[in-house]
Amino acid sequence: MDSTLPAVAEELLKEIKKAFQETSHVPDDLLLGLKFIFGPSAVPALDLVDHRSVTRVMSPSGRTAYQVLGSSGKLYTCYSSCHFCTCPAFGFTVLQKSESLLCKHILAVYLSQAMGACQELSVSEEQLTSILLAEEEDEG
């Protein structure tokens, strides 16, 4: 994970990946750790993973973003490389109030990576640019 998460969170995600590769499920002790470290984002993030709501969007140049279909039906763009999501919860609880390490969408991205549960979508450079610009237009 190329993120700015605390070492304990990084280690937990590595353990989840290892356990999932070996047994195809996440043991209860790691689920408890997930809930302890990520708080109220953990269960909704797991639900998003279960519903295969995370899509890795890749362009020919190797640029990558993730799109997560939120529980509200809205599509959010997440950037795991810089630990950012376009949802309002990320802006408010993570950036403004510092109440959480991340939102459920970016946690779902990290969990999907760990469990190999990302859907894959290859797009042209122009299509990826449109996806990124559409997010800016929504905010502006």
UniProtKB/TrEMBL annotation:
<keyword id="KW-0862">Zinc</keyword>
<dbReference type="GO" id="GO:0008270">
    <property type="term" value="F:zinc ion binding"/>
</dbReference>
<dbReference type="GO" id="GO:0097196">
    <property type="term" value="C:Shu complex"/>
</dbReference>
<dbReference type="GO" id="GO:0000724">
    <property type="term" value="P:double-strand break repair via homologous recombination"/>
</dbReference>
<dbReference type="Pfam" id="PF04434">
    <property type="entry name" value="SWIM"/>
</dbReference>
<keyword id="KW-0863">Zinc-finger</keyword>
<keyword id="KW-0479">Metal-binding</keyword>
<protein>
    <submittedName>
        <fullName>Zinc finger SWIM domain-containing protein 7</fullName>
    </submittedName>
</protein>
<feature type="domain" description="SWIM-type">
    <location>
        <begin position="76"/>
        <end position="114"/>
    </location>
</feature>
<dbReference type="InterPro" id="IPR007527">
    <property type="entry name" value="Znf_SWIM"/>
</dbReference>
